[in-house]
Write a structure and sequence with these properties.
179 residues; Arc Repressor Mutant, subunit A; single chain; mainly alpha
């Protein structure tokens, strides 16, 4: 079970550090072997141990045959590590759990639109789809089309009014938009 927890809760690099540590190598020796400082090795061990300790056997059973987010290379880049941490902290620990959680849950977890876009692309690479993402994209497309229509209308209409009338026209449009 310990090996499964290691695979589930640790990145390949963290698992390598943990295996060397369990074999009895000192922090300094591990650091030399992996070109890391001993303080960085200690930090990696502490982070990995904290995640391993919070994983339950039940969670492991439910996640069997799923893709742990800690093992997804696309989530192990400088730009995506924070996304992975947010997902982990929100107990979304496999790609399948992330896909099922859906767009709204990711939004409420504090992820930006750009981060959610990255997640949707990662999921797509694994033939998984984020719930609510297609609807959100359709809504954005509809809003974009209406905004484009309004922009075209505005360019035609504003030439029919004098410069003195434009502020009043803008206020009237705002009243309509915010009513």
């Amino acid at each position: 079970m310990e090996k499964l927890k290691l695979k589930y809760a640790c990145t390949p690099r963290e698992a390598r550090v943990m295996n060397l540590y369990k074999k009895g190598l000192t922090l300094e020796k591990i650091g030399k072997k992996l070109a890391l400082s001993s303080s960085r090795v200690k930090a990696i061990i502490d982070q990995a141990m904290a995640r391993i300790e919070e994983v339950t056997d039940e969670e492991l059973k439910l996640a069997r045959d799923q893709h742990p987010i800690m093992r997804v290379p696309a989530l192990d880049t400088t730009k995506t590590r924070l996304i992975r941490c947010i997902l982990w902290d929100n107990r979304l620990r496999t790609l399948e759990q992330v896909a099922d959680a859906g767009y709204e849950r990711l939004k409420s977890a504090g992820l930006s639109e750009k981060s959610i876009q990255v997640i949707a692309e990662v999921l797509h690479a694994y033939n998984l789809y984020l719930k609510g993402w297609k609807e959100k994209k359709n809504k954005d497309a509809n809003i974009g089309a209406v905004a484009e229509e309004f922009k075209e209308w505005w360019s035609q209409v504003k030439s029919k009014f004098s410069a003195q009338d434009l502020p009043e026209l803008r206020r009237a449009i705002r009243r309509i938009l915010y009513s």
